[in-house]
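Recap slide: Nudix hydrolase 15, mitochondrial, sequence and predicted structure.
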Amino acid sequence: MGSDSLVRVLGRLESLTQQFALHKPRPPANGTNSTKPTVGKRAAVLICLFQGPHGDLRVILTKRASTLSSHSGEVSLPGGKREEDDADDVETALREAKEEIGLDPSLVNVVTVLEPFVTKNGLTVVPVIGTLSDIKAFSPTPNAAEVEAIFDAPLEMFLKDENRRAEEKEWMGDKYLRHFFDYESDSKKYVIWALTAGILIRAASLVFQRPPAFLEQSPPFWNRATENTTASP
């Protein structure tokens, strides 16, 4: 990414930050209070962005521990289910990031909250975008019980057709694409796919203000949070 492009992107992030400060996220379509989201069927993830050494915008990712009961060994964004004491989705995302990778919430400048995604089993996942002004202030400390590895990837890669593949799936008669992004970091190979890939495609589209260079065709159930219903198992 050229210096002029980066300046525009950083300016866009600053604009989104100001919008977030002025306007609280919209309440969910199911009528629950966004400041006190439903416990049990709601989660939040942190899309933590920072400027890399080569001037590109990068996102922090984790590889889940192989001992976990669900989604073991998969790449994910820091985050997890809402707890009773969490004030809102932002607090959930920041708390989980601290627990999983040792990221101090005070280092994160919250930019905005994206529209929720809903999984096939009805879990509402809220992506929270935040930035780190000084990546050197972050000393990763992975929670071994939850996280096997911490790495970062360029956000813009989720708009490119390079190192990407897709498979066609079907849900209740509707066809959609499941995207897979292959990425290598420090001689380790990772696959970023499914919900995590979908969230990052949407975040990159917002930040860079352009659509992906490929057919997205998202799962229809992802948008159910805005349709006053939830997906069936």
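The two ends are 41 Å apart (CA to CA).
The chain has three helices and eleven strands.
(End of recap.)
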